[in-house]
Please model this.
Amino acid sequence: MKSLRPILCALPLLLAALAVHAQQPVTFPSGDSTAQAILYLPQGPGPHPALVVIHEWWGLNDWIKQEAAGYAAKGYVALAVDLYRGKLATTPDLAHELSRGLPQDQGVRDLTAAVAFLQARKDVAPGRIGAVGWCMGGGFALQLAIAAPSLKAVAVNYGSLATDKAALAQIHAAVLGNFGGQDHGIPPEAVHAFEASMQSLGKPVDAKIYPDAGHAFENPNNQAGYRAQDAADALARIDRFFAEKLAR
Model:
């Protein structure tokens, strides 16, 4: 049975690829430098809704590519941004090194440039762009919502949370969050504080805490902490959220 695991894990990516019109590496200006990403296109000329897909601290690995391809198969132009610009972590120590070496302003600049890249495409409906991120990428998704008020919807999966009201006041996107009740880095009290701050500002927010889940519970490569049932529920919440918020 263990020998089948790689095949079963790859199957969603293979099926998604059948419904994706094209995928290609792209670059675009980001300040005085150049950002990198992989663009996944759905079938049909569009204009389509679009998503900025933001990776974990591991970098733009196969799982994030699979998620981006899956969103393209569902009808979104998906832009998976490579915040590490070609580097990839295979160990926690290297992931920690790469994440600490990424200046937040550079990451946010690359992501806001990604939004501009999508808005300029003829196959994208510029008023229907969202973002989704996991772990480090979840925190960046929220920072992108602050920096890019044109976003319509943002999904934060166990990412670090801002509570400064002056910053949160700049958010115009609806925000969905999925968090683990056993996540010591982002504990339930931090989620509740974020919700309270958003609600006090009249901002739409929907955060769910999965009591028995820890950090990175949606990633099937997290052998110690992956929770299939909770992950399926969280991803279904994201699908419904984007279908509602990015609909015509």
